[in-house]
Amino acid sequence: MAFHLFKKSTEPRPIFAALGTDMHCHLIPQVDDGSKCIEESIDCLRTLQAVGYKKVFVTPHFCSRFPNEEDDIKQRYEQLCQAADAAGITIEMAGIAGEYRVDSIFRARLDSPRFFQVAGKYVLIELSLHQQMMDADDLIFDMQTRGYDLILAHPERYPYLNIDGPRIEQFLNQGILLQVNILSLGGFYGEEARRRAFAIIERGWVSFLGSDTHNTLYCQALRDLSRSRKIEKLLEKHQFMNNTL
After folding, report:
1. CA-to-CA distance for 80 and 209, rounded, in angstroms?
2. Predicted confidence (pLDDT) at residue 69 exceeds the cutoff of 90
3. What pLDDT sits at residue 1?
4. Number of Cβ atoms within 10 Å of the Cβ of 197
5. Which of 52, 55, 54, 49 is nearest to 16 (CA)?
6. H/E/C letters for each residue in the chain?
7. How far is residue 73's CA from residue 140's CA, in Å, rounded to a whole number?
8. For residues 18 and 12, what is the distance between their CA atoms, to the nearest angstrom?
9. What is the CATH code for 15-244?
10. pLDDT of 20 strictly over 50
11. Contact at 8 Å (CB) between 180 and 197?
């Protein structure tokens, strides 16, 4: 009996209620490297509920690898919403956004602008995870001159983006907001991404945290992280903008 009394709980804790909204996840099935089926998406939504989220924006990839079409995304999103409702999911399906990679087809999209925006306010962009694109900064600036407000996804994951160098501060000075992946804080993407994530949060540079949930593997990591007192303290210490969405 004593063993059961003092056994460490493996249940998720709703610590992300402090954020309220998850503004980065890949739960529309079969459109990118995220969820592979409706059932997996529903399981992931249950996890997001269990760890405290009240609202979620889905952000499918739009890039050369996943050249998604808006009408198809809308149709699949409606199917997901119907399935979530039938499954008794109570988290609010707040809408479609997108994660737009600044890559070889980004210019064409910019010249014929069609962007799903987070809460109708922000375009979520990402850079290459491997190497810097030569004209990425010009494309980003061009987008801003057209009136778009930007969020840069997971800057801690770009190995060429020196957090002690001028480029991140340049982004901030341009009014670009930063979003760190929650799972980076638990080492999901490696020790270097974890270290960088904590560093830029402590500097006050981060406006949003996103789960970037792709599948049930990510969800298990998120459930584990929800039991971290260190993460709970970080959420108490720092103010993020998720709950403004």
Report:
1. 23
2. yes
3. 47
4. 26
5. 52
6. CHHHHHCCCCCCCCHHHHCCEECCECCCCCCCCCCCCHHHHHHHHHHHHHCCCCEEEECCEECCCCCCCHHHHHHHHHHHHHHHHHCCCCCEEEEECCEEECCCCHHHHHHCCCCCCECCCEEEEECCCCCCCCCHHHHHHHHHHCCCEEEEECHHHCCCCCCCCHHHHHHHHCCCEEEEEHHHHHCCCCHHHHHHHHHHHHCCCEEEEECCECCHHHHHHHHHHCCCHHHHHHHHHCCCCHHHC
7. 24
8. 15
9. 3.20.20.140
10. yes
11. yes
Show contacts of 139-145: CB within 8 Å, 24+ apart: 139/102, 139/106, 139/107, 139/110, 140/102, 140/171, 140/174, 140/176, 141/174, 142/110, 143/110, 144/174, 144/175, 144/176
Structure confidence at residue 4 as a pLDDT band (50, 70, 90): low
Q: Which two tokens stand for residue 60?
A: 């499918």
Lookup result for tokens 């996943």: 66
Tell me the C-alpha distance between 121 and 112, whole Å: 19
Both tokens assigned to 55: 């609202």
What is the per-residue pLDDT across 136-146, written as a single tens digit (0 to 9) for each?
A: 999 999 999 99
Tell me what the pLDDT averaged over the chain comes to.
95
